[in-house]
Amino acid sequence: MTSLHQELARSGPGGATALTLGVFDGVHRGHRHLIQHLQAVAAREGVTPVVVTFGNHPITVLRPEIPLAMLTTLEERSVLLRAAGVEHVVPITFTRDLSLFTAEEFVLTLRAALGMIVLVVGPDFAMGHQRQGTIPVLQALGAKHGFSVEVVTPLTLEGDVISSTAVRGALAAGDVSAAARCLDRPYAVAGVVERGEGRGAELGFPTANVAVQADLALPADGVYAAWLTVDKARYPAAVSIGTKPTFHDAGPREVEAHALDLNGDLYGRRVVLEFAHRVRGQERFSTVDALVERMHKDVTVVREVLSQAPPRTSLDD
What we know:
Layout: H1 3-11, E1 17-22, H2 29-45, E2 48-54, H3 59-62, H4 74-83, E3 88-92, H5 96-99, H6 103-114, E4 116-121, H7 135-145, E5 148-151, E6 156-157, E7 160-161, H8 164-172, H9 176-183, E8 187-194, H10 199-202, E9 208-212, E10 222-230, E11 233-242, E12 254-259, E13 270-281, H11 288-306
Parallel strand pairs: 1-2, 1-4, 2-3, 4-5
Antiparallel strand pairs: 6-7, 8-9, 8-13, 9-12, 10-11, 10-13, 11-12
Helix pairs in contact: 1-6, 6-7, 8-9
């Protein structure tokens, strides 16, 4: 039995299934559109819908030299997939050995371990070594081995296909509003609060330094209106992402959140940040007084923006 078969069988529901396979990073609107079709097919066939998700992105194995910022951790992805109505989420590890599987070996493993009778995919889907398992190849394999292939038309927004790549591009441009439209929720990151330099408190704006996982995508450097969630309580926050150029010529990139209506110590606690709006880009100020004056203005904008943008996320539910 291969390690892939063992991973699949460990989390499988038993019995016949309709399944879809992919990374599903971000679980955006396009992913949920595919999942809705999966659920409809499963109901029609009287089988269990299953989502098989790669715990690691295949590009980290196939092209490790290419940096890739993920939109979600595996844990967050599983939470979001279940929130979308998927009861059975099966994580697998993409390995060098798995990359050498032929499409036929892959689908036979899915048949044996998960009882797949329907494979639900998008039109650009391909699987197996060097992506040789295109839709026509998979349809021929299905006729041979007793499963069908359902191809779902991708969901578009303003003429563009909604994709994880599009979300990453919006975040890289600081356009958290565009990212939210693709996701149908604010983009959010989570992390534990660590001790920083303490400079924010000295300036009258105490901040929580949030340690975000290094491979996760962050919006472009700047100041954002966001919601900070801790222990299921949400607070408006001004969040700064960047290197603090007023104080450092080449400092590390940090995420600092100033919770507007929260009194108390957040050190060591896990918080979630939901980005609602970009207030401004990162700036270098000539004096500390000029920075403080701008921070007061930033807080005013944050309060105004968030008064019209109620928080909603699934990462901390």
